[in-house]
Amino acid sequence: MSGLTLRTKELGTALEAWPAGLYGLGSILLLTPFVSQFIMQVQFFPREFITGLAIFCCMPTTLSSGVILTQLVGGNSALALAMTVASNLLGIIIVPLSLARYIGTGAGVSLPTEKLFRSLVTRLLIPLIIGKVAREASKGIADFVDRNQQGFSVGNAVLLSLVPWIQISRSRSLILSVQVEAFAAAITVGVLIHLALLAFNIAMLHILSRLGKKGDSVFAKKEYTRAVILVSSQKTLPVMITVVEQLGGALGEPGLLVIPCVFAHINQVLIAKT
């Protein structure tokens, strides 16, 4: 579905903002995963809640909400789309390495990096390519998808919601044993992480805008900075769940790893809308 609904014709218009896009990719794939090693130092029970949020920080940006929110606030949607596509493609290579370095080392376990890479390729990249090729190969398919964009969005959302629901249901007995205060604390930590990412990216773009000539720098143009701030401050849930499934419990109970990230995913969208 993501491949079928992925429109890339306007990507060329984002070329003039390549410095902003490059910063966004660096923030998504390099800076945020680096922060995850500090999140792992937080003492929390159950431990999986913090580990899950640290894994979440190593993920690429959201596949759709970042672009949609950028359009809503008057940002450059072409730049947002370019960063989304690039970060998710590059993330297939970088995410397993980040997890092994920052999460596996901190947890004292060896992660199956090669297995993770193969899984991301087969479960995410190949289906995405198939959908995109089908869209580009047939104008009829592309027109049908565009006419039924809302239906595809709803279907995508339903399917995505089923995946964490299944993971959480598998760990039902453990989740019911967790105190309500622990859930509240995990949700709060997720909100704080997103606010910290927003604050960091806003501050960095403000600094970068001052370095160039006044009015000439792409970092001084609001439509570009809005796109970068929104897209580089969000993380995708489906990729995180795919990773957790492949870990096979190496970092803890999958349901407990996923549940704080479900709330974090919802919160980042709500915060961005406000």
Automatic annotation (TrEMBL):
Transmembrane parts of this sequence: 20-40, 52-73, 79-104, 182-204
Protein localization: Membrane; Plastid, Chloroplast envelope
Membrane association type: Multi-pass membrane protein
Record flagged with keyword Disulfide bond: no
Main location: membrane
InterPro entries: Na+/solute_symporter_sf (IPR038770), Put_Na-Bile_cotransptr (IPR016833)
One Gene Ontology cellular component: chloroplast envelope
This protein's record includes keyword Nucleotide-binding: no
Keywords attached to this entry: Chloroplast, Membrane, Plastid, Transit peptide, Transmembrane, Transmembrane helix, Transport
Function: May function as sodium-coupled metabolite transporter across the chloroplast envelope.
UniProt similarity note: Belongs to the bile acid:sodium symporter (BASS) (TC 2.A.28) family.
UniProt protein name: Probable sodium/metabolite cotransporter BASS4, chloroplastic
UniProt source species: Miscanthus lutarioriparius
